Amino acid sequence: MSRVLVPCHVKGTVALQVGDVRTAQGRPGVLVIDVTFPCVAPFELQEITFKNYYTAFLSIRVRQYTSIHTQAKWVTCLRDHCLMPDPHSEEGAQEYVSLSKHQMLCDVGRVLELRLILRQPSPLWLSFTVEELQVYQQGAKSPSMTFPKWLSHPAPCEQPAPLVEGFPDPSKVSSEVQQMWALTEMVRASRTSRRIGRFDVDGCYDLNLLSYT
Amino acid sequence: MWQEESDLSLSIAQMVQKLKGSNLYAQLERQAWASLQRTDIKLESLKEDIKRFFKTSGWEKKLQNAVYSELSVFPLPINPAVPPEHLKEPLVYMRKAQGSWEKRILKSLNSMCTELSIPLARKRPIGEQKELLNKWNEMGTDEPDLSHFRPVYAPKDFLEVLINLRNPNYENGDSLGFRTHLGLIQVPLKVKDIPELKELFVELGLTTGQLGIDDSTQVPPELFENEHVRIGQKVLVEQDSAAAQQYVRQGSPTALRAELWALILNISSQPEDILYYEQLKTNVIQHDLLVDSLIYKDVKLTASNDDYYFVFEDYLYQVLLCFSRDTSVLSHFAYNSASPPRSYIRGKLGIEEYAVFYPPNGVIPFHGFSMYVAPLCFLYNEPSKLYQIFREMYVRFFFRLHSISSHPSGIVSLCLLFETLLQTYLPQLFYHLREIGAQPLRISFKWMVRAFSGYLATDQLLLLWDRILGYNSLEILAVLAAAVFAFRAVNLMEVTSLAAAEAVLADLSTLKVMPLLQIFLFATVT
User: Fold this and answer.
1) Rounded to whole angstroms, how far apart are CA atoms B26 and B21?
2) pLDDT of B334-375, one tens digit each?
3) B327 and A195: CB-CB below 8 Å?
4) Is B349 on the interface with A (CB under 8 A)?
5) pTM of the model
C-alpha cells in the first residue's frame, strides 16, 4: 500500500489545565497538538506515525472540508486510543506507533487540519508528548513518471559495423555476457545472511586496545 | 481485520527472510530437488505434491520447529519504521546506561591489558599450537599463573549500576508518594503480581502433576510419573518443538531431558555443526586471547571449587574457549541491549576495513560466567552438542541476566519483580530486613544472575531450568527467590544484620524447588 508523506506544520503543544498554570501544584495531564497542512489541498488521510513519549491515551480530531458553502466541521476520528496499558509503568512509553485509516471511527477524507489530544493521568511523569509525527496520504496507484524524450522515441537503428575476420560474433558474445550477468545478479540477490565466520582480517588478529566509540 | 492480516503477511515475509540463510533452507531445497525423482510427484500438480511429500516425510515438522524457534526468540512482525537500536532496547535512558556500563568494562579490560603488558590477542607459535592440541582434552591439568588476572566485574558491581538506574522523566523526588519504591530498584517497569503469575504458571498449580513433587518416593508412580514419562516419549517420537515446550512445564524425566531440551532449542547435530565446532577448536589453537585467561580464572575460582561440577572442568574449557571465537553469536546483539566491543588491527586505528570485534563473539565473561555451562555437562557428554546447547541457551536466556534492558525477562525486571513480590506478600519481613540494612535484593541478586546455578542441588536446578525452557521466560527465577525468602522468613525475622541474613540464606542446597514455588504461588494465604 503506497503512501505519500504530507508536509505538515506541527504547532507547539498547548497544555489544558484548570486554574493558573504557573501557580497550580500539579502538572497538566492533557496536551493538545494542532497539525496544519499549509499549501496542501484537502486530502484523504492514510496513516499517522509517531514515536510515543510517555503519553497514555490519544484522541484525534479532524477538521474536514464538506463544501464551499458549509463551514468545515471537527469530527473525532480516534477516541482514547490506549498507548500505555499501565500509565504508571514504562510499558509502551517510548514505542513507535502507526495508526491507519482503518482504525479510525469515521471516514477521514478531505482533511484540512488535525488535532491530537494527549492524555497522561499519572502524576509520576515529568512530561509527555509525541515525537516524529508524520502524516501520510494514499499514494498514486501507478507511478506517473515522465520519461525523457529519447527513451520514448528511440532513434532509428544504426547500421552495425562489418564483422572483422577471426573475432567471435559480437551479438553471440554479448548475449552470453548478458546471461552471465543475469546469473550473477541472481546470486547477488539471493545472498544469504549467513556469516562466513572469520573474525580475523587476512589471518591477522593482532589488536590494539579496545576502542570506546 | 485489516491490521491483523497486514501484520500476518509482514510476519511471514520477515520470517522467510530470517530462515533463508539457514541450513534448513538449503536442506529443504535439496529435498525438493531430490523428490522430483519420486513417482508420486506429478508435473501437473508439482507444488501440491511436493508440499504433501514434505508433510509425510517429517520436513514440514522441522520447518514448523524452526519457525516456532525463531518466534520464541523474537516475536514478529517488526515494524519496518523502527530503527535497530529500538529493537535492542526501546527505552533511551536504559540504552544510555548500558552504554556507560560497557564503557567501564572496556576501560577495565584495557587497563588490565596495559598493566600486565599482555596483548588482547596473539597468534600462537607452532610449538605452542601442537602442545595445546595434545592437551585439548585435559586443559584442566594446566596450572598457568593467573594471580595477576582479576575478573572484569562481579555481580555485585553490576548490582550497584542497576541501583543507580534512573529515568530522567520520572518523579524521583524525596517525598514519599504512592509509588515510592522501597527496594533498591527505582525504575517503574511493569512487573506481574501473583494473580498474573498464577495465570502464567498455571501448570504449576496444586491440581496438576509435577516432577519434583509427584515423583517423590512416597507417591506411587502409577498416579502420575509413569503416564508423564509415556507422554514424554511420545513427544520425542513426534519431534514437535512446541509440544516439547508445553510438556517440560511439568518437569522432564531425567532420561528424556537431554533430547527434550535439544528439541525445544531446535538443535539437531548435523555434520555441519560438528565441523563448525572443529573449526572453532582450530581458532582456539591458532590464536590466544586475553579473554582465555579470564575464562581460566573464572573456572578455577567457581566451577572447580564446586562439589557437583569440578569433574567437568575440562569440558568447561572446551566449551567456553570455543564460545569466545564463535562469530555467529554476534547476531544475537540485534535484540540484546548490549553491543560487542570493537577494536582495530595494530597500526590501523580508525580504518574501517581493519575493525574487528573483540572477543570474536562480543561477550566478555564475568565472575561466575562458567556456571551457565556447568549444569549442562550433566546432560550432554559430546562436546559439540554440549557447545550448541549452551550457545542456544545463552542467546535465548542467559544474556538477559547481565545486560541492562526493560525486557520482562531482563535482570532489571527480575529484580523489581522479586522486590515487589516480597514487599507485597511479606511486608513485615521486607520492612524488618530493610530496617537492619539488609535489603533483600543484595542477597538474592547473585542467585538470579547465575540462574541459581551453583546454589541449588543439581537435580533441583535442572527442574528449575525445565520451567525456564517451558515458559520461555526467566521470571520464575524471581518467583523462586521470593519463595526462598518466604520459606526462611521465621529465621530471617530474628536476624539483626546483613551478615546474619546472608548466613541464614547461605546454603540453598537442601531446598526442593517445586514445592517452594507451588506453595508461594498457589497456597499462600494473603
Assistant:
1) 8
2) 999 999 999 888 888 878 888 889 899 999 999 999 999 999
3) yes
4) yes
5) 0.88
